[in-house]
Design a protein that fits this description.
Helix content: 55-70%
Shape: elongated
Distance between the termini: 23 Å
Number of strands: 0
Number of helices: 7
Oligomer: single chain
Structural class: mainly alpha
Strand content: under 5%
C-alpha cells in the first residue's frame, strides 16, 4: 500500500500539511527546555568546539527567559564533572543531535546575516522548529493513511486533527524539543 501517492502534493495533502505547520508554528513556544538542552549543548559543542564534550558549556546564556534552565543544567554538569566524569557527554543518543545540527547551523548563519538579536535566540528558535515540522508531517501522514484505507475525507481530517491537537503529540511537538517525534 502506497501511503503517499505520487500526486500527493498536487491534491489536498499539501493543504493538510500547511494547516498543521501553521498551527504548530503559531502555537509553538519558540524554544526548547528540559532534557533537550543537553542535546542542544551537544550540537553547540560540535559546531563551536568540534567535539561532543558539554562540560565546557559557556557560563552565560543569551536567552533571558531560559537562563534558569541553563543554570540548572550547568550546575548538574558541574556536579557530574566534580565526581570524575570529565569529559561529560550527554546521556541521550546521537539521533537528535544529528537532527538538530542543520537547524542549529541555519540559526547560526541567520545570526551572522541579521545580527539584531543575540546568537542563542536564533539557534534555539531554529532548533525548536524541527518538532513543529515533524509533527506536521506526522499529522499529514495520518490523514494520507486514513485516505488510503478508504476513509471519507472528513473522517481522515478528524483523525489527523485529533492526533495533532488532542494527544500529547502536540505538547511534544510545540513545547518540548525532545526526540519523541523523531
Amino acid at each position: 500500500m502506497n501511503v503517499c501517492p505520487n500526486n500527493f502534493w498536487q491534491g489536498s495533502g499539501k493543504w493538510v500539511f500547511f494547516f498543521f505547520l501553521s498551527l504548530m508554528l503559531f502555537t509553538g513556544s519558540g524554544h526548547i527546555g528540559g532534557d533537550s538542552m543537553k542535546t542542544y549543548y551537544t550540537v553547540e559543542s560540535l559546531v563551536i568546539d568540534g567535539d561532543l564534550d558539554i562540560s565546557n558549556i559557556k557560563p552565560t546564556f543569551d536567552v533571558k527567559e531560559m537562563q534558569g534552565v541553563h543554570r540548572r543544567t550547568r550546575q548538574y554538569i558541574a556536579d557530574m564533572t566534580q565526581n570524575g566524569l570529565r569529559p561529560y557527554y550527554s546521556e541521550y543518543g546521537s539521533g537528535m543531535v544529528l537532527a538538530f545540527l542543520p537547524w542549529y547551523l541555519l540559526g547560526h548563519a541567520l545570526h551572522f546575516i541579521i545580527p539584531l538579536l543575540p546568537h542563542d535566540y536564533y539557534t534555539i528558535f531554529m532548533v525548536s522548529l524541527l518538532n513543529c515540522l515533524l509533527l506536521s508531517i506526522l499529522c499529514t501522514y495520518c490523514w494520507a493513511f486514513a485516505m488510503q484505507l478508504g476513509a471519507p475525507p472528513s473522517i481522515a481530517w478528524l483523525l489527523s486533527l485529533a492526533l495533532g491537537t488532542g494527544t500529547f503529540v502536540w505538547t511534544y511537538g510545540v513545547k518540548g524539543g525532545g526526540s519523541e517525534l523523531l
